[in-house]
Structures are given as C-alpha cells and as structure tokens.
Amino acid sequence: MGHYKGYTFEDLEALLEKLTTIKGKFMLSNYPSPLIDQFVKANKWHQREFKMQVCASKKSVRPKKIEVLTANYPI
After folding, report:
1. What local confidence, expressed as pLDDT, does residue 56 receive?
2. What is the rounded average pLDDT for all residues in the chain?
3. Alpha carbon of 11 to those of 6, 28, 56: distances in Å?
4. Which residues lie closer than 8 Å to 71 by C-beta, 6 or more apart?
5. What is the pairing mode between strands 27-30 and 46-53?
6. Which pTM value belongs to this model?
7. What are the sequence ranges of the domains in the chain?
8. DSSP letters along the chain, please?
C-alpha cells in the first residue's frame, strides 16, 4: 500500500473478488489483512508469511515487516 499512493480497501476487495473467479493459478503478495484472511478461509486458498527486515532503513536496528503470500494452490 505504500507504493504509487497505495490503493483503497475497495480496490483490494475488488481484486480478491476477481481472484475467486479465475480458472488459472494466482499468487498475491501483500501484508497481513483480515480481509484477505476471510477470502483464504472461504475459498480454501493457501498462505505463507515471511518476516523480512526493511533493508532500506538507515536505522541501526532495522525494523521488520511481515509479507504474506496468498495463492489458490499449495505454496
């Protein structure tokens, strides 16, 4: 959400709705989201979390973020 002025909750919801209709495979990279969790549960999608250090930080202790991969196939 931090790039290109981000996107709205409605944008994310529309994307997830569209992903429920595709016949092919998809993988989505995002941050933790209760909305995505709802779609994962309802559609039996798969998720995997990764804890990453923020590499561009100038701080001596680099903050961490969680990236979540969501797919409609086992990751």
Report:
1. 64
2. 88
3. 10, 14, 27
4. 25, 26, 27, 28, 45, 46, 47
5. unpaired
6. 0.79
7. 9-71
8. --STT---HHHHHHHHHHHTT-SS--EEEE---HHHHHHHHHHT-EEEEEEEE-TT--SSS--EEEEEEEESS--
Retrieve residue 46's tokens.
Answer: 């798969």
Chain Cα centroid distance, residue 53: 17
Q: Which residue in the block uniquely carries the two structure tokens 């779609």?
A: 39
Evaluate whether 31 touches 50 at the Cβ level (below 8 Å). no
Angle at 36 between CA 8 and CA 71, to 5 degrees: 120
Residues 27-62: tens digit of each pLDDT: 999 989 999 999 999 999 999 999 987 766 566 777
